[in-house]
Specification:
Elements (H helix, E strand, L loop, with lengths): L6 H13 L2 H8 L3 H15 L4 E3 L4 E3 L1 H28 L5 E6 L7 H12 L4 E6 L2 H9 L5 E4 L8 E9 L1 E6 L19 E5 L5 H12 L6 E6 L2 H9 L4 E5 L10 E5 L7 E8 L7 H11 L1
Parallel strand pairs: 3-4, 3-5, 8-9, 8-10
Antiparallel strand pairs: 1-2, 5-12, 6-12, 7-10, 7-11
Helix pairs in contact: 1-2, 1-4, 2-3
Family: Belongs to the LysR transcriptional regulatory family.
Keywords: DNA-binding, Transcription, Transcription regulation
Pfam family, one: HTH_1
Length: about 300
């Protein structure tokens, strides 16, 4: 008769190899002693080698049995590891999370999130990519991103949004500009300057917000350049090609010849939100959202 090794054979062998008594092993396995004997005999027929030395007084492993026991122990330990990994994946504790973000989020929100993930869910690996608002939204909708950190007033149906950070605005000037914190009064002092804005196509509401800061002080700014990149804006300011208004948190992390003056006398604030697709099936997402909403 032809047999094939099945997982149950290995389990029966493992228990018998540990107990070295057919009666005790059969009781532990909830099968009859003759049934256990038949299973071991099938294994020996398949492997064509005796696995146990049997006498009336004792049962011992053969050399082949000793080798097989080590391998079977490894197999079952590995299966336990696989089971734990699958349970963790199912619970969202071990997987990859794809995150898009604006540059301003990299100053505090992203580092704090990664630190908390490493502490609470060390099995979650993050793939981070800086990109503009519209591209993040597009990638979220196409399931190319799991999370996005954006400055958008609203998002389409099916996309969830939650505010995680509110920021003030700051004026960005070349390092040698005559206006500084001691003689700055309000933004109207810069009405004759060229301004460098974030792109209105990427975030019209954000563009309008900055325009409103200037218009509230009685002038409409001359927009010389637009960009989706904070670094590009800062480089242009550094070269004396204009001034800019940006979220205050962006003043950190750049080693450029520019200076920042926080606009403390204005009501406008900018909000950073996290967005995600409500139908996203990444099991890690619920854990990350819980961390973000709980700390917001």
């Amino acid at each position: 008769m032809s047999y094939q090794i099945e997982l149950r054979h290995l389990k029966y062998f493992k228990v018998l190899a540990e107990e070295l008594k057919f009666r005790l092993a059969a009781e532990k396995l909830f099968i009859s002693q003759p049934g256990l004997t038949r299973q071991i005999q099938q294994m020996e027929e398949i492997f064509k080698v005796p696995l146990f030395d049997r006498t009336k007084r004792k049962v011992e492993l053969t050399t082949a049995g000793i080798y097989l026991k080590e391998e079977v122990d490894f197999i079952f330990n590995h299966l336990d590891t696989i089971k734990k990994h699958l349970e963790n994946i199912g619970a969202g504790k071990e997987t990859e999370l794809r995150i898009g973000f604006l540059g301003s989020a990299a100053q505090n929100v992203i580092p704090e999130l990664i630190l908390r993930l490493n502490k609470d869910y060390p099995g979650i690996q993050t793939l981070l990519e800086e990109m503009p608002n519209k591209l993040q939204l597009e990638f979220i909708e196409k399931d190319k991103l799991d999370l996005g950190f954006v400055r958008l007033p609203r998002v389409p149906n099916g996309i969830a949004q939650h505010r995680v950070f509110q920021d003030s605005f700051s004026l960005v000037l070349p390092e040698n500009h005559p206006i500084n914190t001691s003689n700055f009064q309000n933004i109207r002092q810069l009405s004759a300057e060229s301004f460098i804005f974030f792109s209105s196509e990427d975030s019209p509401q954000y563009y309008d917000l900055i325009m409103g800061i200037c218009e509230d002080k009685g002038f409409r700014p001359k927009v010389f350049h637009k960009s989706v990149s904070a670094l590009t804006i800062f480089k242009l300011v550094e070269q004396g090609l204009g001034v800019a208004i940006v979220p205050t948190s962006l003043q950190h992390g750049y080693n450029l010849r520019i200076k920042f003056i926080e606009l403390k006398d204005i009501p406008q604030r900018t909000e950073l939100s996290v967005i995600w697709k409500e139908s996203n099936r990444n099991p890690a997402l619920k854990n990350v959202i819980s961390l973000l909403i709980g700390s917001a």
